[in-house]
Amino acid sequence: MTTRRGVLSGVAALPLLTRESRAQPTAWKPSRPVRLVVPFAPGGLTDILARQAAEALTPRLGQTVVVENRGGAGGNLAAEAVARSAPDGHALLVGTQGILAINKALYARLSYDPDTDFVPLGMLAQQPNLLVARAGGFVSLTEALAAAKGRSGGLSYGSNGAGSFTHLSMELLRSLTGAEMTHVPYRGSAPMLTDLVAGNLDIAFDALGTSLPQVRAGALRALAVSSAARSPLLPEVPSVAETVPGFDATPWYGVFAAAATPPDILAALEAAMQAVLTEAAWGRILSERQADPLPGDRTALTSRIAREREVWREVVRRTGVRAD
Hints:
This protein is about 45% helix and about 20% strand. The protein contains eleven helices and ten strands. A five-stranded mixed sheet has the order 2-1-3-10-4, with helices on both faces. A five-stranded mixed sheet has the order 7-6-8-5-9. Strand 6 (about 155-160), helix 6 (about 165-175) and strand 7 form a beta-alpha-beta unit. The longest helix is centred in the C-terminal third of the chain and has 22 residues, at about 300-320. The protein starts with a helix and ends in a 5-residue tail after the last helix. The relative contact order is 0.17. Mean pLDDT is about 90; it is low at about 1-25.
């Protein structure tokens, strides 16, 4: 039988229970499929990593994560799509240096602000570019830089196009060393590498995924990796920074949410991303793709991107290159 004292004690306990439930809210979960917007066409490393991440995130978020490819305009179409979506955690961006650190300097007008519209949830990977020369050419970066300073006209270098990351990376190297170089832009990596192998170019930065097979086949020589330290995947290849202190031009790929997303949603998304990125399975995926992890929480990654903005926008300013 219920006593008056029991009823009163139960009533008195209700406010305490309510406070406790408020102090420990249930973690946010998406109410419909989550879009992971990729700024390039299917098939490249960015798309491959995004699809792997979507598959791993789906059970953690309790909703299907679908990849949506929106290529064009240097990644600006994808960034715009996420920036204009409701900031409710259901649209995320796969971002790169181009979108977050470079495009504001390259393009006269953007429909989004990369400085303030996005926050990082986690970095999928980083993959250094390779500085390569033809097989019968330079044997080291030191030799190449000496030739650039001593040869009339300096060196010729190829890139994937004016304003591309490979173009700006070489301009960063040139500015740090004072080496004389002539830029030869191409429409993509394949024709550039063909000319490099044929001896029509001296050197070039190129994605590890496309240049490494040529190095292993003996058609190209790897002079250095573009990351600040040697890549664990190519420990025998020195970093550019070993010859040119302070150099770091490492492409990375991250997942970003709209900055206006409520804190509880951001926390849930970041926790899911970090759980995926620290699994052994993700490490195996990176190894298969010749990529390295790029750890860090939201605060650390935000600081890194802010530093990179200063570096790359100064490079763009010095070169005077524009994308529109």
